[in-house]
Design a protein that fits this description.
The protein is built from 17 helices and 14 strands. It has 466 residues and is an alpha/beta fold. It has a domain at 192-378 and 419-462: Dihydrodipicolinate Reductase, domain 2 (2-Layer Sandwich), CATH 3.30.360. The structure holds nicotinamide-adenine-dinucleotide. Nicotinamide-adenine-dinucleotide binds next to helix 3 and helix 7.
């Protein structure tokens, strides 16, 4: 067995069967760095700036019609009605989920999607169809990478739910496949399209924050009820990860918008991280009270990960889905002339000419609203009417995300997020697990972009697509 095959097998095994990850951390990261160098030598070409010919009406297949798949299908209603997209086929394990989705789609689309169901590999037949452009993957985490890779190999573009991968090996394999097949592979991170995050991003781009130094994000969401329910997630897939692993499993809602703020992949990149998990108490307690068989939990109640960029900016990222902590993504960003924090959204603006205004006070409501109306992202203003009329999904951001994805394909433009973005944001999960297992030791962040991050470029999400 050569070194890479050995690492691959032991990497997968350690993730699932409890071989101490810590002993493998440095080897895993250097194996990934070797593979990235090899990718460059083989000259598959970067996917930065990648676009395809315009697709007038995007033909879509969707795999996984559970909680998320159903909501995302509704985000297509306006697009299918306006001939921008057509949903051609749907796949799930069971037929009833497909029928529910088809019932909702009926009043918006004349044609009825074909159905694939009955066993765990039936989705492959959907992907193999020759009348599809884009496959949307909204299945449990363990299916994301195999489904995305097979889709690209079958000549279709991918839009995949978060996280797109949760092992370093899978991160590398996804990039390699996209570079080889020349297919779009976008992780659909919806919080990057939320009104508050886009407002903050617009202010940063317009110079309101000065130079950025620090940001904080999180996924604090009490999921005990959902994870312990036998009905909510198919086969209770989510809690099983909490039984076997320890780290930050849901990084992207916090780190996606932050990475846009910090221009990650476009002039800066993450260099290293340290991660620490608290002890576990709350999910196992809840499981015992609910007489659930899932009472052995490995993942700590609170994971805190600190990340440093090559240019010296810092990020704190937290993950807690075990406790009753009210929902928050924190959404804090600090610059030399302004600070924002979310939940609820507050803004501090420095007054460089008057010491008495330094520090301490958030803007009052009127001053905040002045900034809000001046810096609301143009994309939000433009799409407000449509997203209010149709089902919005998480307050509108899901519609905006799907609208932007399909519009880029209609116009033949680069997508808002490259494959490297989705991978960098997802890779924090396995890197956090490695650091937690090594007593919070600093772990080097592999350069998944193969060096392209060093070149400054505009954020695609700031483009006006009209
Ligand atoms: N971005 C967001 O805001 C957001 C919100 C919720 C969920 N998600 C993500 O969406 C994904 C799905 O989460 P969910 O809550 O909908 O879970 P879920 O369990 O409700 O749905 C998953 C669906 O996938 C189907 N499925 C499983 N294996 C399959 C296979 N081999 N072939 C075909 N279908 C298969 C299941 O039958 C189920 O209907 C997860 O990755 C989750 O992280 C994202």
């Amino acid at each position: 067995m050569n070194r890479k095959t050995f690492l691959k097998s032991i990497g997968a095994a350690s993730a699932f069967f409890g071989i101490p990850l810590g002993t493998l951390a440095n080897e895993q990261v250097s194996a990934i760095n070797d593979a990235i160098k090899e990718r460059k030598v083989n000259g598959n070409g970067s996917m930065v700036g990648f676009s395809i010919d315009p697709i007038k009406r995007v033909r879509v297949g969707i795999i996984g019609l559970g909680n998320r798949g159903k909501v995302l299908t509704q985000m297509f209603y306006w697009l299918v009605q306006n001939q921008k997209a057509e949903i051609i086929a749907l796949a799930d394990l069971t037929e009833n989920k497909l029928d529910e989705t088809i019932e909702g789609l009926k009043t918006h689309q004349k044609t009825t999607p074909k159905k694939y169901y009955g066993n765990k590999n039936e989705w492959k037949k959907l992907v193999e169809r020759d009348d599809l452009d884009l496959i949307l993957i909204t299945t449990p985490w363990e299916w994301h990478t195999p489904m995305a890779i097979y889709t690209m190999e079958q000549g279709k573009h991918v839009a995949c739910e978060v996280p797109i991968a949760y092992t370093l090996e899978d991160c590398q394999r996804l990039i390699q496949t996209a570079e080889q097949t020349k297919k779009h592979c976008m992780m659909i991170e919806n919080c990057c399209y939320n009104e508050e995050e886009l407002f903050v991003l617009n202010m940063i781009q317009e110079g309101v924050f000065g130079d950025l130094t620090h940001a904080e994000g999180a996924y604090l969401h009490d999921l005990r009820k959902h994870m312990l329910s036998e009905e909510y997630y198919q086969d209770q897939w989510r809690i099983k990860h909490h039984q076997k692993r320890d780290g930050n499993f849901y990084t992207t809602h916090g780190i996606g918008p932050i990475s846009n703020y910090l221009s990650i992949g476009r002039g800066d990149n993450y260099a290293s991280l340290n991660s620490m998990s608290s002890r576990e108490k709350s999910l196992s307690d809840a499981a015992k009270r609910a007489n659930s068989p899932f009472s052995e939990i490995k993942c700590g109640d609170m994971n805190t990960t600190l990340i440093k960029t090559h240019l010296g900016k810092t990020v704190m990222l937290q993950f807690d889905v075990h406790t009753g902590s009210p929902y928050s993504r924190i959404n804090k960003v600090v610059g030399t002339s302004a600070v924002h924090i979310g939940y609820p959204s507050r803004l501090y603006i420095d007054n460089p000419d008057d010491l008495k205004y330094w520090g301490h006070n958030w803007l009052d409501d009127n001053a905040y609203q002045d900034y809000k109306s001046k810096y609301t992202h143009p994309m939000i203003k433009k799409l407000k009417d449509i997203s209010q009329e149709y089902k919005q999904g998480h307050g509108g951001m899901d519609f905006v995300m799907i609208y932007r994805l399909i519009t880029c394909l209609n116009l033949g433009l680069e997508l808002d997020q490259t494959i490297y973005d989705g991978i960098i944001w997802s890779a924090i999960t396995p890197l956090s697990e490695l650091s937690v297992a090594k007593n919070s030791e600093s772990i080097e962040f592999p350069d998944f972009t193969g060096g392209t991050w060093e070149t400054k470029r505009e954020l695609e999400v700031m483009r006006d697509l009209t």
